Amino acid sequence: MKAYLSDRMGAALLMAPLLLFLGAAYAWPFFGVVNWSFTLPEPGLGQYGTLLSDPLVQSVFVRTLRIAAIVTIVSVAAAYAITVVWVRGTPTQRVIAEFCILVPFWISVLTRAFGWVALLSNRGLFNTWLQAIGFISEPLTLVRNEFGVIVGMTHFLIPFAVFPLASSMRSLDDRVLLAARGLGSSRMRTFWSVFVPMTRSGIIGSALIVFVFSLGFFVTPAILGGGRSVMVAELIYLRIFQSPDWGLGAAISVVLVLFVGALMALLFRYVRPKQLI
Amino acid sequence: MQQPGRAAEIKAIGIGKSFGSFRALDDLTLDIGRGEFLTLLGPSGSGKTTFLMILAGFVQPTDGRLYSDGVDITERPAEQRAAGMVFQGYALFPHMSVEANIAFPLKVRKKSSTEIKRRVSEMVERVGLKGHEKKLPSQLSGGQQQRVALARALVFEPGVLLLDEPFSALDKGLRGQMQAEMKRLHQETGTTFVFVTHDQSEALALSSRVAIFNHGKLLQVGAPDEVYDRPANRFVAEFLGEINMLPLKGVRNADNGATGLCEDRTITLRGNASAVGSNAILAIRPEYMSIAPEATAGENGIAATAVASTYLGAATRLDLTTRQGAKVTVSVPNEVAASALSKGNSVWLTWPAEKGFLLPDGGQ
Predict the structure, then answer these.
(1) Where are the transmembrane segments (chain A) (predicted)?
(2) Which of A176, A178, A183 to probe the B interface (max B CBs under 10 A)?
(3) Partner residue opposite A198 with nearest CB, options B77, B82, B94
(4) B35 and B61 co-located in one domain
(5) What is the ipTM of this complex?
(6) Does residue B78 sit at the A interface (CB-CB below 8 Å)?
(7) For residue B348, what is the domain's CATH number?
């Protein structure tokens, strides 16, 4: 018992610097933001009233939720396919899948966003090629709109969706899949009615983590949306730095943090933190 | 519930399986009769499970052919073989209720929902799971999960039921109960059962025939009393239970058996024993030996000294040494053991002529 206590003390001491840093860099300033949301420009719940009535703020929230939902569905579906190959493929397939999952981690989010601009813009690679083979006559608008934002965000988030899925697929008992086949189930049917349901916790964890990430995305939508597809994080930035409306920016931040916090609480009911890395 | 004709008859001819340079199974030829209860018995790594996986279609043999009712099924994928299988650890679908687990093979076969309902409830009743239909596997005890696995594997009336060490996770009492239950299910369904185990007493208790494996080879197939009383070689003799072995010299065939010399005493063997060389090993199960105060003319017997006894409750196990130093174990009534130890420890070991058998000298 004594050793256990001192172990706990030791752990607390080791964690103290991180906790102090988080307190100083996040918690304390966030209390400041909460304070602004109730006091600027005058004390009261005025900013939260605006938040509920302002059609611009509401349209940004709706767009953010819509984009986050689409990105979540596309990312999880794509990640599922990659993870099946990564966890259950032949050794060569595994290496290729692993390469595809890890390489995006080594390239900065800015570089990747500009990379997509180069690929998707009116005079970008896709449009040039499609015009060259005569598939289209006018360039398609692939960037500086919601489509571009979704492409860029999906690309960024797929690797994050992979890890919870991989963890649930690795812990799956192979004999259950054999049993299904032995009972007469085709490979397709075994996949849909046994494999997929058995990785349910991985799918939920993966979807929640992608969704939470999507809600707060800033750089990718700012670059690929080109100001025409503003998401919540960019709206906060605009309210604080461009139209000095700190109270409203703060109120939006508080709502976003509370919403994300609720989703995280939900996430940890389905997934243990170590499954996410 | 099942027409007897649906039980499958399986023929394996020259089946072999290599994993890289490791030979898991070698030249196995075996007929499994319609409606038979065959046990594949052997230590781990003996090839018994590999053979079961080949029967199920999960493993492709490297050599040989496999026939079911005369049809070559060597290359037929598992899902088309219609063999019911019960796995070690049951392999139930954790996300499905008991009912849904049992209904799965019927759903896959696109049976009508009324038929599925009827057959599932029939099966639930048969294995004694009434009242548990809506539960998930994780809410059941080990024995109940075992019943679900059996029900799921039998509900589509497979021609053969394959069982891979199904009782290894159960405690002893439950094991006996499930064994009896499985015997009953075998009689009721009339289907062919192929059962893998490394527990010899389980094999002897359950099966109509036992196939003994070691190092990827099939050593002997026969009825339980046949393999127990007349093992083909030393490995089989030792694997099936305790056995006493004594060197025998000057072995020759005699009418209806053989004779030879053991420690200067003439020993007769009656029944299936026949000499292969002049030297052999005389093998006798401990429970067939008894202890006498002195030699009786015309009866098998050698002198021995009792060295230790172990009280087992119903009987006493007595360890003895012969004059030439061979170690022998016998199981005797408790009072016999007490008097054997008190009388200067010197006794006479006897056994009926038909209970001894010959094993080749020195070899396997």
Answers:
(1) 65-87, 99-119, 147-166, 203-226, 246-268
(2) A183
(3) B94
(4) yes
(5) 0.79
(6) yes
(7) 2.40.50.100
Q: Chain B within 8 Å of A188 (Cβ-Cβ)?
A: no
**Which chain A residues contact residue B78 at CB under 8 A?**
178, 181-182
CB–CB of B358/B258 below 8 Å? yes
Token pair 């909460």 is found at: A34
> Rounded to a whole number, what is the distance in Å from the CA of A190 to chain B's nearest CA?
10
Q: Please report the domains of chain A, with CATH numbers, ordered by start residue.
A: 56-244+254-276 (1.10.3720.10)
DSSP for A104-151, please give it. Answer: GGGS-HHHHHHHHHHHHSTTSHHHHHHHHTTS-SS----SSSHHHHHH
Task: Say yes or no for a CB contact (<8 Å) between A184 and B91.
Answer: no
What distance in Å separates the CA atoms of residue B355 and residue B259, rounded to the nearest whole number? 13
- Residues in A closer than 8 angstroms to B123, CB to CB, are none
pLDDT digits (tens), chain A, 277 positions:
455 557 778 888 888 899 999 999 999 999 999 998 998 888 888 888 888 888 988 999 999 999 999 999 999 999 999 999 999 999 999 999 999 888 888 888 888 888 998 888 888 888 889 888 888 888 888 888 899 999 999 999 999 999 999 999 998 988 999 999 999 999 999 999 999 999 988 998 899 999 999 998 888 888 888 878 889 999 999 888 888 888 899 999 999 999 999 988 887 877 666 666 5
The three-state (H, E, C) secondary structure of A21-86, written as one string = HHHHHHHHHHHHHHHHHHHCCCCCCHHHHHHHHCHHHHHHHHHHHHHHHHHHHHHHHHHHHHHHHH
Report d(CA B211, CA A260) in Å as an integer. Answer: 63
Residue B243: what residue type?
I
B63: containing domain? 4-236
